[in-house]
Each structure stands twice: as C-alpha cells, then as structure tokens.
Amino acid sequence: LLAELPRLLRDRVPAHRWVIIADDTVARLYAGPLLAAFAGAPREPLLVRFPAGERYKTRETWATLTDTLIEAGCGRDTGVIALGGGVTGDVAGFVAATYLRGIPVVQVPTSLVAMIDSAVGGKTGVDTSAGKNLVGAFHPPRLVVVDPEAAATLSRAERAQGLVEAVKHGAILDARYVAELVRALPSLLEGESASTEAAVLRSIEIKASVVARDEREGDYRQILNFGHTIGHALEQASGYTLTHGEAVAIGMVLEADLGERLNVTAAGTREQVELAVQALGLPSRPAPATDVEAVLRFVGADKKRRAGGVRMVLLGELGRVAPGDGWSHPVHDEAVRAVLD
Ligand SMILES: NC(=O)c1ccc[n+]([C@@H]2O[C@H](COP(=O)([O-])OP(=O)(O)OC[C@H]3O[C@@H](n4cnc5c(N)ncnc54)[C@H](O)[C@@H]3O)[C@@H](O)[C@H]2O)c1
Ligand SMILES: [Zn+2]
After folding, report:
1. For FRET with 17, which of 31, 37, 119, 184 sits at 20 to 30 Å CA-CA?
2. For 146, which DSSP code?
C-alpha cells in the first residue's frame, strides 16, 4: 500500500504539497520506497526526520518540526504524512493540528501499536516532564493507510506491545476476537502479513466504532482504557522499567480480578484474560518487588479519578464491558490493594 499512497492521497485528501514526518529508524527503512512512489508527482514531498524514541515526543520536537515547515514555506495547501509508530503519529499529528491552526494529517502507521491502536481516533500530542500526553489536541486523520507488511521489520517484543491492545479490543467488545488472536499468535508474533492484516482490520473496526460514538471521551470512549488504570500506575511505579504493553497486560488481568471480586465481572473472566496475556509471553502478575503504595498513589493520580474515589472500566464478561454509572464503576483503594497483594 505504501506504493499506492500517492494515488490514495490524490483521490481523498485536498492537499497539493506533502510533508512526510518520520523518525530516523523508520525513515531509513521506508522513506526511500515512499519517496520513490511519489516520483513523477507534480511536487516532491519534503521529508522531515527526528530522532526515534519516546523521549523525543516533546514540545521541542514539535517546535523543530513546525519551524522546518515554516522555513520551507508550507502553506495551507500542505498535508502531513505521519510515517511511523505511535510517537511519530502523536507528534506529527500535533504538528498538523496546530500548524496554521490545522492542516490535514494522514496516518501511515508502521509499528503494530500504531496500526492497531494509535493511528485511529484522532488523539495527538506530546509528553512533558510532568507526564505523558499532557499537551495535545484532537485532530482526526483524513486517511489512515496501513501496510501490514511493515510489521515484518519490527522485533517480536515490539509486535507483542501492539497485540496487547488488540487483546484489549477483544476483551471489551468481541470475545471471539480474543480467541482468534490467541490462535493466530505464533504468526502474529512473527509479523506474518495475512494474520497481521486480519488483526489490524478487526482492531480498527472496534476502535473506530467506539470513537465514532464518543470522539472526545465524554464517557463511552473510556472503555478503551480497560486495563489502563492499574496498568498506567504500574508503569509509573516501575519508573518505566515496565513497558506500556507489559503494564497493560498485568493491568487487564488485575482489573478483571477486581471486577470478579466486586461481583461485576463473571467468574472465570480473569482466567481467560490471563491465558491470552500469557500466550503473548507477557507478565500477568506484578513483580514481587512492586511498591504497592506507589501503585495506589498513581492509581489515585489517574485522570479517571473523580470526587470520592477511583473510577474504573470493568468487564461484565470477556467481550463485554459492564455498564455502571455511565461506563465506569467506583472502586475503593482497598479493593485495588487487595488485587495487588
Ligand atoms: N494517540 C493515541 O490514541 C495513542 C494510543 C496508543 C499509544 N499512543 C502513543 O504511541 C506511542 C507508542 O507507540 P510505538 O510503540 O509505536 O512507539 P514508537 O513510535 O516509538 O515506535 C517504537 C520503535 O519502533 C520503531 N519502528 C516503528 N515502525 C517500525 C517498523 N516497521 N520496523 C522497524 N522499526 C519500527 C520506531 O522507530 C521506534 O524506535 C506512545 O507515545 C503512546 O503514548 C498513542
Ligand atoms: Zn495502551
């Protein structure tokens, strides 16, 4: 599909000039073929690179990229192609959201996290020293073009990061999808393109259906946070030695456990979630050295805290979220402590 991008853009996105934003790793792998696909176009796209990694998802990177567009004289007829993983999608999307008060962005995700999750839904932004994703904007892409063959150059560990979010999509809305993922895991972890395509398609269907119903996270969209309240807290309490995927894997198991203990979640659900997580080769329980008090503090600091307690998305059973007060349930700290111990 990368080779067909210029045609897709011509038919669907009203821009005359393109800026491709990519990190150095992805640029080395995919910018050449993409630029080659534009050969013969009226105007050669401008390729702008930045260093790879979460620590470059900053306002400084945003400023440098934006200055480059200004210096190149990009006008309102410019569109941004975000070529890369979730970091690139978020920061390039934020550049597009703010440049001249907003120009079109096309997401071309190359990591499995981005294909399965971040390229769809319109959240863009950067981190600050006070926390992740604290500054940003909703800026839905005009087009998302996924070439599943790009998964071939990812490491197994990076693929597992994306597949955690796919398991989450199944856990909240489609139990059969969880079973299909577990069955296809050997080829998914190898980056095989047909099974990757099937998973990306189903995950995008699920995420898009949620976002279409509640784009700005009034209430329903928070079901995508399943596993993330405890997950984020574990990630922060570990000082980011746990990856996001590892932390969310554990978070989903513990939140299913919590739901069972509160009689909101059907018995046996925790076990189903845990089996899926283990099949991915990810941890399903916190490490014994986990600082439980720190985790509880971070759970409390979570954005989902409202007056009087933490609010959490809980499953009714695998494949269904339990409606509560809206789409979340009040949970006491002691209940969280109980599943951490
Ligand atoms: N906007 C959203 O809704 C949303 C949702 C989930 C995650 N995110 C964000 O996404 C980020 C994580 O995404 P990520 O894991 O893709 O991080 P990333 O963009 O840093 O990519 C991970 C690494 O893989 C490399 N890479 C990407 N594609 C590759 C390919 N095809 N072959 C080889 N290497 C490749 C990148 O250069 C990078 O080094 C976080 O910042 C998170 O906040 C955003
Ligand atoms: Zn996540």
Report:
1. 119
2. -
